[in-house]
What does this fold into?
Amino acid sequence: FASYDLTPPTGDWFREVEVTMAQPAAPPELSLVDESGRVRAAFTRLIDYGESTERHGGSGQAEAPVTLVIFPPNANSARRAREEVYASYKGLDLRGRIVMYLASNAPFGFDTESLIRGAEGVLIVTSDANPRNQVLSGDYLERPTMPVFRITTAAADAILEGSGLDVAAVRDEIAALEHWAVRDLEARARMQLTLTPPETVTLYNVLGLLDGADAGLADELVILSCHYDGMGRAPDGTLLPGADGNASGVAVMLEIARLWQEQEFQPRRSVLFAAWAGGDLPYSGAHSFQDRPGFLGTYDTSAVIHLDRLGGAAGDGLVVRQVSGRDNLLNLLAASADKLDVSVAVGGRPRHPYQRILDGRQGTLLVTWGDPQPALASDTVENINPEHLSQAAQAINLTLITAAHEPRY
It folds into this structure.
């Protein structure tokens, strides 16, 4: 950032972020097994599932039949008194079972309710199966603990397959429910997780500011955002390089800063180049930055663009998710890409919690090339598509120039 004539927004390029983590001490296991314990299908951490340390989630081992629990629509919208909740689950016996439920369907905290009713482990079907092993409060590792895994729809479909079901069919059944229901599945699972003691480490956001040149617009802020770290190594030592997720986003950010310096571009609005730490964490460096509003409080945030996975081989163009705000920024990106013959599809979903925050008045966007699954061990620089990365950078650069310079768009 310094070499591209950016300035540290608060006198320092680095913002400290302290996080506390409980990491797997050995490779976790989630597999389907037969009655003798032989593995029929093994799932992969970070691709199919991730561990959760929320509430009673923690170290433990379970091998048991899988029971699906489903609820009427909107069952997760009401938080009721404990006595009312207990009465509503009268007759629900989960002893000796591994419980599976849909995160979007179950009442809040049903993992704890499952434990109370005898479950040995919990599988939560969700669109965000990243590990949740960050210690956020004193509620961490409430006793007793049990293994709680967040699993993808694809993993859930594999578990449901033996019962002639899939997640889509389960959702159809949920739509007609008036009371909770239990389905004992033709599946037996093994879950195993051993966590290290919690450890506090210091991470660093890296921030660079380009001040706006227009006195009337300089207090409006455009944020170009990405996370710069990744998973590092799997518990078994496998290196997870993170070339596309998310060195590609960092590369695009730096290239835009370099081009602006080379072309002596001076925006009217102020522009913050933000590389966040802890991109995979529920409470990341971006969350810490937002919650300490000394810098942000002096600006009106006009637009935010989150960059992620911009150089993959798959996909025919940009995929854009409007996270919040007006449509102005989305329309601007579509028009900018069209001028460069780069296709744009609206879709995708945030894979990192920070991509759901930082609200821009004209819009907050998540931009990827295609919508690839995490590549993990194969996410190497050799698998980056330079043409895709270049097209993404050009479209985002043109969008950012307009968003930072034009009074209206």
